[in-house]
Amino acid sequence: MTATTAAAAVLLGLVALGIGDYPLSLPAVVHAIAHDDGFATVVVVQWRLPRVAAALAFGAALAAAGALFQSLTRNPLGSPDVIGFATGSYTGVLIVTTLLAGTPLDGTLGIAGGSMAGGLATAFLVYALAYRRGIGGMQLIVTGIAVTAMLHAVNVWLQLRTQVEVAMSASVWAAGTLGTVDWTGLAPALAVLAVCGVGVTAATRPLQQLELGDAAAASHGVRVGAARLWILVLGVALTAVVTAVTGPIAFVALAAPQLAKRMVGGAGLLLAQSALTGAVLLLTADLAAQYALPQAVPVGVVTVVVGGCYLVVLLLRGARRRQGR
Description:
The two termini are 33 Å apart. Helix 1 (2-18) runs antiparallel to helix 3 and helix 3 (39-73) packs antiparallel against helix 11. This protein has helices spanning 2-18, 26-34, 39-73, 80-83, 85-99, 108-130, 137-161, 164-174, 183-210, 214-219, 224-246, 252-264, 271-292, 299-323. The chain has 325 residues and is mainly alpha-helical.
């Protein structure tokens, strides 16, 4: 199933590279990538490939973050956007672009740093508020939802107190868009995500032990508190990198790991399948945002609409399951 999803991601990427005002067939796309084909190479490599690569990489990153948090909380609602880490990253970016406007921090690195700092600060705040002789999944989620509500209020206040032009720019960016991605902004983000990928690989074994329960994990030599904190930081980093480049893109982290489990038909940690599913999901959503509607919209709008319906179904199924007990 993992190989099938990977093949689907590659095929969908090639299709996406051929769609647009200058349509190209699949053989023409492959030829434009492999050879210097003049204008076709410029269109494919310089104009379309950054957006397609960002959709695949960021979808995989968000899905991996969602899988980490859902495994950590043992709850399908435990994703970075529900718990509030994505909103915290956005708050960090807003602080840089509004309160620190005109300073040396008001730039690409400053925005990336603000996103990372906002996400980490939110993570530590949620972790501290939820801690009661340990961290339970539901208390972490409920605390995260409460912190998210407060951060939304802070974000609105920041936008209201700044200049109209800055507030409008922040509002557009807050919708979550891949339309502004280019190689200059994408290359460092991909490098950071590659480093995070190494961390995710290293965290696989502690996560598998934690899924057996804290006592079982501790008996196998896992330092439970340190492992949870490390996985928390890793998930926040994956989310913050994506938010810094595109703005918050909701529900991919929530839905992709659950869809991956349904496709594979098993339980447990499915990081690779989740990442590939997230890549396909975000690229599909971006293609729908560009071409399926009368007017192109940010991809975050599509993921919010589709993801919101998915969340409602998830909550209804949970309610029916509890009533059936």
